[in-house]
Design goal:
By secondary structure, the chain is an alpha/beta fold. Helices cover about 30% and strands about 20% of the residues.
Length: about 190
């Protein structure tokens, strides 16, 4: 059992005693690192710090190495863009990993640095460096032959994860979040 402590209610997902959880850097790592309760010694938690976009590909590799274990990866939209073409590879090779994409249409963990650089008053030109176009990653995944699930409300998250795990094929869960929501800072 893995518990995702998210507001307003925790989401409990039974990832068996052998689940592998792979987490990207930035918002994915900062928020997931403190919100996972792994409940079994056989579960694995693998994270990256410093390699944006790593989790999606690493999750596919973990699934290939451990085909009998459920694998679920967490990444953000900025990181997912680095390797989005690998959805096709995963579908073609029937890699049934699950990937959750935090879709806040931005690399907003960089916002603080840009706020400092621009004296707290970013120009429209400055936001071009970290704000992305709106995209439906679930639709892209479906168009490439994977299971695509779009989550727009917190209550939809648990059922979406359960559906993706049960699908037994490549699945992308596009979790729409607020561009202004930042993972809490460790220091102020």
């Amino acid at each position: 059992m893995v518990t995702l402590r998210a507001r307003p209610e925790p989401v409990e997902i039974d990832l068996k005693r052998t689940a592998v959880v792979v987490v990207d850097m930035q918002n994915a790592f900062v928020s997931k690192g403190g919100m996972f309760d792994l409940a079994a010694p056989g579960q694995s938690y693998i994270r990256s710090f410093g390699h944006l976009g790593w989790a999606f590909s690493a999750g596919l590799g973990a699934k290939c190495a451990l085909p009998d274990r459920p694998v679920i990866s967490f990444t953000g939209d900025s990181g997912f863009w680095y390797h989005i073409g690998e959805i096709e590879t995963a579908v073609r090779w029937k890699i049934n990993a699950v990937t959750l994409v935090n879709n806040n249409r931005s690399g907003n963990q960089s916002k603080l640095g840009f706020d400092i650089a621009y004296g707290g008053q970013q120009t429209e030109k400055a936001t071009e460096m970290w704000v992305l176009n709106e995209v439906n990653f679930a639709k892209i995944a479906e168009d490439m032959g994977a299971v695509g699930i779009r989550v727009e409300k917190p209550a939809e998250l648990g059922p979406a994860i359960r559906r993706a795990l049960a699908a037994d094929r490549t699945a992308v869960i596009d979790v729409v979040t607020d561009i202004e929501a930042l993972a809490p800072l460790a220091v102020s």
